[in-house]
Amino acid sequence: MKLAIVHDYLNQYGGAERIIEIFHEMFPDAPVYTSVFDPSKLPPVFKEMDVRPSFLQKIPFISRTLPYYISLLPMAFEQFDLQEYDVVLSSTTSFAKGVITPPDCVHICYCNTPMRFAWRYHDYTRERSMGALQRMLLPVLLHPIRTWDAVSANYVDYFIANSYNIGRRIAKFYRRDSYVIHCPVDCSRYHIASEVDDYYLIVSRLREYKRIDRAIEAFNALGRPLLIIGEGSDRARLQKLAGKNITFLGKVDEETLQNHYARCRALIFPGEEDFGLTPVEAMASGRPVIAFGRGGALETVADGVTGCFFNDPTSESLADAVMSFDASAMDAQTIRNHALQFDVTHFKQKIEDHIKMCIEGNAPCSVNA
After folding, report:
1. For 58-84, how does the pLDDT look when each residue is reduced to its tens digit (9 = 90+)?
2. How many CA atoms lie within 13 A of 238 on its CB side?
3. Nearest to residue 144, comparing CAs of 249, 74, 43?
4. CATH, domain 188-341, list 3.30.390.10, 3.30.390.30, 1.10.60.10, 3.40.50.2000
């Protein structure tokens, strides 16, 4: 079996790129096709991969200016020559599923989300700082891309959704069934600490849509210590909002991250995410999660067992949840055991089994929430 991996773009590192790392571990000889490749923004392992970028790679400064070439991205993926492969495994939040495969090739798409900026435009623009000109032009650009995105969903033979939340979106926007295999976490990296300290924790990129401001407002009112790990374009604004009880740690090394997870009173997860890896990482460390009760957190956090939810999108609702939540009543080992169902070993086995069933033509096409 000759297999190729396809990904949207490799010019940043996040949960979607971690999926590519895992696919590479599973299929080390498979080339990775992508629109642009910037190894300086990625862990060293990506330099070891056979990465094959599109013609966009030749454009000067493309890693920084890629959004300006959004109208060329469909063409970039459609022009890849994949005639020699038996299986194409695409991983996407936008364009990668649009590759054109030969009739006897099985195209399996691991979908992290349908194109968010196309299908949830109003949410997308509300969550980001955009000028008046950008807000005026974006709908004009998105109309043909939305049409292409819907059509290119037909290029996929089998969809895998990273959650039931995303499975429902695939059904809504693409009218396709999908099989759910949840995002993986390497639980072996995390440990339970013998003692817990008196602080709450956020681990996140500091972007507007992450709603860190909601947590800052809540903890300003509560006066309780909050540590924030992560960097991003919204950091300066958030620091101006934060009181003295809130500390920004920026980017930290892996050992520091693991220790902060293990010793926090609870992880705060204030925004709505498609899936959300940090709650699983915190639970793998035996620590509970206080999460906004929308999106992927509903599939990972067990209310009353591994954490709790706040249901209104306000700082007051989050503050009430923090005040009423008793972290000491949660059992660390029970929390970690719950997280283990999302471990990377299970993910790899499920992906391998599903690919085999797809090739044999008897893969389950959907799982209902």
Report:
1. 999 998 899 889 889 999 999 999 999
2. 31
3. 74
4. 3.40.50.2000
